[in-house]
Design brief:
Layout: H1 7-21, E1 31-36, E2 42-46, H2 54-61, H3 66-85, E3 88-89, E4 98-100, E5 106-108, E6 115-116
Length: 131
């Protein structure tokens, strides 16, 4: 649990939750919703992925067999293809954000750094003036 003190933290989390609630794909972690309790603690409800992350699995068991690398890569690309077809760019693909369930199904997670494309194929960040 994390107390949210910074408005930008809240905005980023709310963006992520709103984004994720509209997505449904076998290789994307499913979000069910969120709530803030009376202490201001944000609780996010999402699909349970018991296998852990790719990073955790590599740490525990060492290198994957080539067949596993192929299987996981294919699933990651299918998830990314789905995101891109919905104008979403993940922007933080790494072992810790790739979860694996008990059936060896890969799920992309942690969309806090993601962005969406506008109708002009620009990201939110490139259309925002900073400084």
């Amino acid at each position: 649990m994390n107390m949210l003190n910074q408005p930008s933290e809240v905005d980023n989390l709310l963006f992520e939750i709103k984004l994720m609630l509209r997505l449904s794909h076998p290789h994307i972690v499913e979000y069910y919703g969120a709530s803030v309790d009376e202490l201001g603690v944000l609780h996010i409800f999402q699909e349970w992925v018991p296998g852990g992350s790719v990073q955790d699995l590599l740490t525990r068991f060492g290198s994957f067999a080539l067949s596993t690398v192929r299987e996981y890569t294919k699933q990651i690309l299918e998830g990314l293809d789905y995101l891109h077809s919905n104008n979403i760019i993940h922007r933080d693909i790494k072992g810790g954000n790739i979860l694996v369930n008990a059936n060896r199904t890969v799920k992309l997670a942690d969309f806090g750094a993601s962005t969406t494309l506008t109708q002009f194929n620009q990201t939110q960040e490139t259309t925002t003036i900073k400084g």
